[in-house]
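Lab notebook, design round three. We kept the backbone fixed and only want residue identities now. Task for the bench partner: fill in a sequence for the structure below.
Input structure tokens:
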């Protein structure tokens, strides 16, 4: 099984809410199309500082985070952020890595969007095709 990369659209969820309230125009919603690696070892969305700045996301806290090599470090948490994959949406916060690290799409947004990596095709696939995202609430 190789690496899985996908194109997603990221929106500043605060801007989306301001647009819903007719405070800003749709053209003022800060948005970015990016390619990211799907990482089932990451819990949430991981972005770099350049992406955070482009979206105008606020730092809302810090999280102790464990990296792939086992090191632990305190990293900024930014948000809220809307993640769109096709017609599927997850609204969450994102861990911000320093420098120009590649963005990662983790399991919490994948679960919310009802997506998984199909082992035969190595592609991101809906768990419930034809139904749209199904949220497990039990």
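Proposed sequence:
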């Amino acid at each position: 099984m190789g690496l899985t990369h996908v194109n997603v659209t990221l929106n500043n969820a605060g801007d989306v809410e301001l647009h819903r309230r007719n405070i800003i125009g749709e053209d003022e919603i800060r948005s970015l199309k990016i390619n990211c690696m799907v990482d089932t070892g990451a819990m949430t969305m991981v972005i770099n500082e350049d992406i955070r700045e482009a979206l105008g996301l606020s730092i809302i806290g810090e999280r102790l985070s464990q990296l792939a090599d086992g090191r632990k470090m305190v990293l900024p948490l930014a948000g809220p952020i809307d993640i769109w994959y096709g017609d599927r949406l997850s609204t969450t916060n994102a861990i911000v890595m320093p420098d120009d690290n590649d963005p990662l799409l983790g399991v919490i947004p994948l679960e919310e969007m009802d997506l998984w990596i199909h082992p035969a095709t190595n592609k991101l696939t809906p768990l419930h095709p034809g139904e749209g995202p199904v949220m497990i609430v039990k």
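Keep this in mind before ordering anything: The mean pLDDT is 94.
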